[in-house]
Amino acid sequence: MTATPAFVPAQLVGRQAVLDTLDGFVRRLEGGVSDIAVVTGPVGSGRSAVLEWAVDRARASGLVVGVARCSPRESQLPYGAITQLLGTLCRPSRIGALASGIGPTSRPTDTVARMCDTLLTLSAGRPVLLAVDDLHLADAHSLRRLVDLIHRARQGAVLALVTSPVPVRQVLAAAGAQPAAPCPVHTLRLDALTAAEARGVVEARVGHPVQGSVLTAAGVAGWSPAVLHAVADRITALGRPLDTDAVPQLIAAARTAWSTRALTTLHGLPENVVALLRATAVGGHQLEPARLAALAGLDATAFADAWDGLRACGLFADTDIPRLRHPWFADDVLAGMTGPERDRLHRRATSLHGQEGARVGTVAELLGDVTSLVRSWTASDPAASSRPRHAADLTTASLRHSLGEPVTEAERARRLIRLAAAEAVTAPQAADGRLRQVMLRHLSRETWPDVLTAADLLLSRGDAETARWVIADVHQRALTEIPDEELRPLRALGRLAHKEKGGLPLVAPPPIHSDRPGHPAQSAVLAWTLATRGDDRARVLELARTALDEPESAPFMCRIAAARALLCADDVPAGLDRLDAVASDARRSDALAAAAQALLSRAEAQIRLGHGEEALHELTAATRALPPASWHSLLAPRLAAAEILALIRCGRVEEAGHASERARSRPEGHSVTTAFLLYARAELALIDRDAARALLLLEECGRMLRAKRWRNPMLIPWRSAAAVAHHHLGAPATADDLLVQERDVAERWGTLSAFTAVRARTHEALARNGVEVPWAAAGTDRSAQPAPSSPSSRSAQDSLTATADGTASEPDPLTPSERDVAALVLAGLANREIARQLGLATRTVELRLTHTYRKLGVKGRAALVAHLRARQEDG
């Protein structure tokens, strides 16, 4: 008896438990016991490699082995799989003898069937392994004969071992090959590899250690052994040590390998499974399961089976709603359909929401999927009846039909963009695919303006993750044929995408973006970058205004970024006005997602101003432009956060809670926009008197913002809310420290008075909803109160702030925080005591004193005290 081989190939790393089970089955077969086993697992999990191992194991034991490897090509040949089994069980001469002994038959396929019966008789009493790889690709004739063969062979000693990505019962049911009697089946599932195992597979393939960045590609590959081999082969082909620039190439190789294997798997899936996959590629996750089933033409049972099959294959994510494992696979699915098939599916998707001939401009109303917060505004909103129509006023069906006409490449690109604009509401994933098609397949000197438009629209959808790698790829390929001046807007969009979603680009190195911009689009993005960091307010205002003075030169998303920078810099009227202009221009261009983003930014500004009702009105307009179900999962958290905060500002806390629950039912991508939703939920937690949970949410919010270097508290005043949480948890010193830190950032940025007002409105909103905020009751700012410890300190404070009522002879150059420290120095406190008094770090006190010395022109502590006392006497 042969033991399990000690050597396990690299492609079988992490499969030892399955191999041990199969070894047990072979041992049982040697003892005359029959079994039926199915090896299943997602795309690229190594099913074929496991089956090959079992075949080698059985042959090493001297057993009779029949093997059939099914493929898409042979699935059209009657008895193709059975013929393979027969060819491996018998010598060719023996097969000829069997055929000649059967005699003439009425049909050629009957010869194969009768040869199988004869073979079964000849093999009676001998242990036999019948191994069939990719059973789902076998032809229906072979499937029916295999079921009968295995069932009858169980009278002897037979181990039937098959591999299939989908449940075998679905494969057999689709072929009408259900067994006459139930048979016990052992299912062996191949799970995803661990990080260590994935790294081991790659290292075994390349023959040397690799760095941890390779695991980025492992994530795209779904921790799949077969796809990791493609990554390893790409590493070998590079022929040089890995660096940052190499990682995108590895990820591209992983994605291509996964997609290729997924499409091969797709060929043999049952019809109901393919129908659901195609419907999901068109409808995306914005369709609820019932509508998705209707789009696929499936009843409840068929829908459930198809959903299970796609999850088993690894083509669907393990979520509560049907969703593709990788959103970009939708393009591959749609590309595999014929033009008429795609048109029929798109028309069916449109008919689910209204009449097929409905105008594109009214699709949002046909969907009728608006949140409760906007319904109260819809009836009375005059803008609802004055929505601009498309100039051509074409349906999506006619637009798709026009793509089949012989036109120039530039005209085709423009039609694809118009179709993408129409599908942004009904089929956003398909729309994204059209835009990527323009960027990746229609890149030329003639179509360059359309490529820029497509990049802008793709980013406006909120999928910064996809937009950044497509833009990076396009930029790299355009370097040789597009002038540098015309490349600058694309670089700006690339930097904006990279800022919204961090990490490495997936296909090509990111476009280089200079901090000395030479184009309005670059000025806009640089202004937004500096604004989020809280750096150089004067330059931000200059850059943003320069960019917005030439709106026709900058893409919509760059203009929105510049307007948001103005809002952060406390130029609120100009910021709101420019966002309104962007929304109007975007509507006229049918860029509904860009219009929605501009209106969302206006709503966020109204929330900071404390205008809850106005914020709800802006959100109504945003969701009318683009229904909530059509917002990308990477952008939807911002929409949900704005809705929650606007409702809190209006005192509608219960509705805000419902909005938060609705947001949980939608998939959330991981991007900086999640920080907005974390903050909104933290305010709800404070109102619910759950300070501990609020603090956890706020700390995660702060961590995400710091990781992106978003330091400006004008964006999200998370420290203010965290201070309230710390106060409720019995840590007033920590609360005061957070307030001071936040105040210092706002002071350095130059919007201290504006931010103080924002913080006061935030605290007042919480107090109105029952949250105890001690320093909000009197409308004071806790961070600005130094709590002096003696009469002398109070007099010092009075002398330092005398300029406020005009009693001082000259303006005070010190900031409020520097005056606080100086007052306590005059009161005789040491640096450590001052730090304790103000809730600061000692180092912070030292730095403020250094600035104070420089501004007042004094050298040292004694000189400062003398200077301050002289001012007291003069006052």
TrEMBL record:
Residues 781-799 have a biased composition (Low complexity). InterPro entries: AAA_16 (IPR041664), P-loop_NTPase (IPR027417), Sig_transdc_resp-reg_C-effctor (IPR016032), Tscrpt_reg_LuxR_C (IPR000792), WH-like_DNA-bd_sf (IPR036388). The keyword Manganese does not apply. Residues 779-817 are annotated as: Disordered. Coiled coil: none annotated. Pfam families: AAA_16 (PF13191), GerE (PF00196). Residues 807-872 form the HTH luxR-type domain. The keyword Transcription regulation applies. Keywords: DNA-binding, Transcription, Transcription regulation. It comes from the Bacteria. This is AAA family ATPase. It comes from Streptomyces bluensis.
